[in-house]
């Protein structure tokens, strides 16, 4: 089971790589960055990020169907941390 630090690094890396692949900068990516289009990623990009996180971590927090509000990257990380336990 990956630790919170491992999940944080992996998720930030995946989001950063997705930004770079779209010719956007990952420089401003922080834990309090919003998980909306303000980073330059649209809903399909975020879906691809989630799929890649699941493939790399083996964790699918969306399988249970009860997801709270995800506003920030930190919220996304917490979702995966809770699902990993």
Please explain how this structure is put together.
With 85 residues, this protein is mainly α. 53% of the residues lie in helices and 0% in strands. Helix 1 crosses helix 2 (43-57) and helix 1 crosses helix 3. The chain is globular, with a radius of gyration of 12 Å.
Helix content: 40-55%
Largest sheet: none
Estimated share of beta-strand residues: under 5%
What is the architecture at the second tier of CATH? Orthogonal Bundle
Instruction: Name the average pLDDT.
Output: 91
How many beta-strand runs?
A: 0
What would you say about this model in short?
The chain has helices spanning 4-21, 43-57, 73-84. By secondary structure, it is mostly helical. It is globular.
Write the layout of secondary structure elements.
Elements: H1 4-21, H2 43-57, H3 73-84
Core attributes:
about 80 residues; Non-ribosomal Peptide Synthetase Peptidyl Carrier Protein, Chain A; 3 helices; mainly alpha
């Amino acid at each position: 089971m990956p630790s919170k630090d491992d999940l944080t690094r992996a998720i930030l890396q995946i989001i950063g790589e997705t930004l770079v692949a779209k010719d956007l900068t990952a420089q401003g990516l922080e834990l309090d960055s919003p998980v909306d289009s303000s980073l330059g990623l649209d809903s399909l990009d975020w879906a691809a990020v989630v799929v890649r996180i699941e493939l790399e971590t083996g964790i699918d927090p969306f399988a249970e169907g009860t997801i709270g509000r995800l506003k920030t990257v930190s919220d996304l990380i917490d979702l995966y941390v809770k699902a990993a336990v």
